[in-house]
Batch of 2 targets.
Target 1
Amino acid sequence: MSEFSGNPSSRAIGSIYKENKKFVVIGLTGRTGSGCSTSAEILCSASIELPENAYSGITNNELRKHRIIKKFIEHRWQPFKCLQVRTVITRYILELNFPEFCRFISDVVSRDISKISEFMREIKEEYDDLHIEVSEYLGSPENTLDEIEAKQEFAFDFYFKKLPTFSNKIRETLKKISIDAYTKIYQSAGDNIRASGQVNSSKFDDSKVFHFPRTINKIIKSAHHVARKNNESCFIVIDAIRNPYEAIFFKERYAGFYLVSINTENENRLAHLRSTHKFSESQIIDLDKKEYPSKLAGHSKFISQNIQKCIEISDIHIHNPRKEQFNNVELKCQLAWYISLIQHPGLVMPTSLESCMQIAYTVKQSSGCISRQVGAAVTDEEFSVKSVGWNNTPQGQVPCLLRNAEDLLLGQDTYAYSDYERNDSKFREVLHGKFDKLRKSPLLEGRNLSFCFKDMQNEIDGEKNQVHTRSLHAEENAFLQIAKHGGMKLRNGILFTTASPCELCSKKAYQLGISKIVFIDPYPGIATRHTLLVGSNSPELQLYRGAVGRAYHQLYQPIMPYKDELETLLSIPGNANKKAIRTKILEKENLELREELEQLKNQLNSLNKLKHPI
């Protein structure tokens, strides 16, 4: 029987959850080799089967939650349709004619164009046919509703059927040029599209910053149109988002959009790149620099890949252990967990890890750092929170976000600035050079002219270090809050951090006897190998898996109390129903008593007539 059949109340339950089941968009993010494509394949499967006992290392209650999820999702599974970002890039590539495409390849990989044309010849005929379709059909305007619907249906078929197949052919052909040619071509094309709206132009046009996600949005709308027409659900997975502003674009447009980061330990990722993708060490270094840039300036912030930022703003974090090449049980179980909660919020409670990380995620908003906000929470071994902290200046000093270079230049709000900042000649010289003209810039439009002291001092010293930062790190702030208020035992405790611990904070955690560090950013530099993986009492490092931020509330806040849902769905008598039934019973009893009393009265009257006849 369908969940929408039955009595009117049970149909109302179906209507309440209908939107959660009709339209969902998931954007996957993560570094190459982490498992985004594998996750997309799982989500697009026709069915999903989960093991009865989940996987090792979970508590009894977590196992019970898993079994609830298993029963729910195996009954409700809805396969996703995969929208590959590379197919959208292929659509932009097809705006070029074939010679222009070969020229673009030649420029990126620095190979003779005649050689490139020879390599690409085997796909030329199909390329030319698709080039015509892109130019004449997708590029044409629509004037009527029928034309709009016809184009949406064409686009659905084009992006979800034709282009994925042809993109695979391009990839295999480019790999014949070099093992990393495909990656370089598509990364360069993606950057150019974000900059100019065109594959072969890197000239920055600020009006084109969201050109790429707008195209993806049109594709999603075409899929939604086809699904509505066929009275079907529309579940889309985007594989994969690597620019944070594209993720923000979709977050602002769809309540049903979730950015899901797929993370794995770096050594597992590197092993996968070497064995499966056959990347050399130099190619891996180039790939990592592209996906995880150390510093982005100017318009490159808007057009470049920045997976660290994408992970930072993700709604759900999935840990892909990658211990066995053909075993994806943990990955599948986690994906099933969150797809179930998207369809039915509050089906199970959050894990202890999620509850504690959500606290760390919430307190990071109190940070006054203008570079990056980080939150931390320290708990005992039973997840009871003992302290929280965020990266900020020591209590009593003014955070950078609240300071203004103009105030410092004009000698205003002197309490907020150090004697060094107010009186050192070299510092004042750099301050004037950087901000004297900028403080009156119309581009500020009322914004506060905050500045980073560390960056300015490093510029003066000609160095690059963390010594001059004004802020405490979130983790050390949490540790110090405990000492500040009398102290308590932290041995065997757990540290939660929304980033990953640096060497300094790692040493402090080690010294305090912290048994486990749960962190989000999966690439903590040398802190792991140098500071933590040494000695006899090393804390266990655990990549975070779970929902944070708005997703935590969306997924775990029930739409209605579960008891009410079951009572309504199955017509189980609730308290209100019981009261109504008791009232009916009393009414019936009173009616029966009145009838019995009336009968007795009639009998008495009859007897009286016999005793006193007229």
Target 2
Amino acid sequence: MKADIRVALVGNPNTGKSTLFNVLTGLNQKIGNFPGVTVDKKVGYSSLPDGRTAEIVDLPGTYSLYPKSRDESIVFSVLADKANELSPDLVVIILDATNLKRNLLLYTQVADLKIPVIIALNMMDMAKKADIDIDVNGFAEKLGVPVVPISARKNEGIVQLKQAIAFANKVALQQDSIDIESIAPQLIGRIRQDIHIDNDYFALQLAHQHETLTFLSKEQSDHIEELEKEYSFHSQKAQGAETIARYNFINDLLYDTVTQKITAEDETLSNRIDKVLTHKVFGFIIFFAILMFIFQSIFAWSKYPMELISDGFTWTQTALHHYLPVGPLTNLLSDGIVAGLSGVMVFIPQITILFAFISILEDTGYMSRVTFMMDKIMRKVGLNGKSVVPLIGGFACAVPSIMSTRTIENWKDRMITIMVTPLVTCSARLPVYTLLISLVVPNKNVWWIFNMQGLALTAMYLFSLVSAVVVAWVMKHVLRARERGYFIMELPVYRMPRWKNVAHTMYDRAKTFVIQAGKVIIAVSVILWVLASFGPGRQMDNIEQKYKQPQFAALKKAAPDSVQRMIASEKLENSYAGMLGHVIEPVIKPLGFDWKIGIALITSFAAREVFVGTMATMYSVNGDAEKMESVQQKMGNARNPQTGEPVFTLAVAMSLMMFYAFAMQCASTVAVVYRETKNWRWPVAQFAYMTVLAYLASFITYHILK
């Protein structure tokens, strides 16, 4: 869509910037990435009253043009660099009307870049409730810019804001807030002259940020560094002087235009609620109770829609086999593409439910309290207060949990969270653990209360959490980042969630997951299907001919299903996947695994729970692979052909559980890690370290218990 004007939305976190973006653009928006970085770029389109179309760019929330994270560094790069493809014609700065003093610092910085500016004075309804009286006309006159009072959550003032955008000046008319040149007069003049720019504040920002700005050449950056030394420029002192000057200006502005009635008994409702929800003891109890409710809801509420989706795809596969001619193309469509697509779509209920809760917690303001409470604890192991929700969400599924790490601003903290979240025991591991535990752990009670199999399963869950924390602590010392882990968190007032925004978040996250992760998972599923369905030469045809011989005729009449399973098992052994199983057998033999388990390790890469189905096929189990009793019985009776001993001993079963506890046996997770990082080196590194840990843990476990 071609736009007539490009508008950038700029504001502090929690000012309602994203809500305003959604109100202005509706569903007419798309998410990509800013050029060269992994930061989400949200762009949408809005129709203006004069018939023109505005392209709306939602820039990351920031408190200042001096960045503390990669997200924040994007803001200055887009605003200042005229060559940037997203360079705006107009900036709409969103201010929280209940917290103008803090918000205005960013405004004064952006305004001094001399880009045409409009102020959207948001949350005016909240300001009225707090008895804050703002002289909007006086405010606009003193700043020299249009000021539009709005309430994005209630859709108030949006028409007036669109009118202001349509009739905005093409040149910057805002008043100067401070004397920029007085901060570093000689240096600013030289940078303007040598780098050929025409704005004092742009020149000052180049002095502060030249080492991290990609639009500067190395020669330009080196020259600015030389000028700093020549004029004895001290970045922190200059920032301090600038901030003091700006707040002097802001204080004068607010003194003249804003009044608030305050009484000794006037304590906000938010503060009263915080005394309970952020309490040193009760705060954590309430938080864990909320989490238990959320993840119980994810399991309970997603069960039936996931079953409907799964049944729908099963019906589709059956229908395709029934109505399409028999052949490899039908098998590819049904068992490869449709089966792979079902592996993506079945996650949608969990994703939408999790993000609905996350959106509600964020909209109400509670998520800010959680990160505030947990930050001190999590930071000791290299994580962030915002890492709590993704890690606990990993009990349901790592895929939506990794997607939820977008709320973590600090790059290092977010990457560590992404890298360790798959270690947490997800629901896909449950069939594997349940099957293996039932084979080797007695089904009896300890102390009349605790079931031994239940204790074993609980131990695997606790082990996964401890593993994630330990690996995070190691990565804290391994992963390097130039940015420091600042934790700046404003506690917004409590509000009712905006249900339209919640619904939009659910839709947006589900769509993103299906489109982005779906491409990869379908490709992987097709590859795995091909490997398991075909073999070299005419081996598959020879197996078919073998079972047509007279000695199998009687068996076919007596037990036709048994013969079909024998054929399928032999074909699988002679397929490319089977050959690969035999190839890797020497590598996995020290773990106690044979080639059949090796095939299961390969096929279960698509999803961990595929292990159970593969075992059912490999051991020719009667009935449906979903019937765990059948799988257990056949695997329990399986014998090593060389020793005659049971295949699944305590050592082998525990070794397998250790392998699945650490291994990245999930193509969806690999896909979503790539989706979130936009670089294959992260999922590759994650797959590598988890595989090494899985092998070592499995090797040690097997040889201790053997």
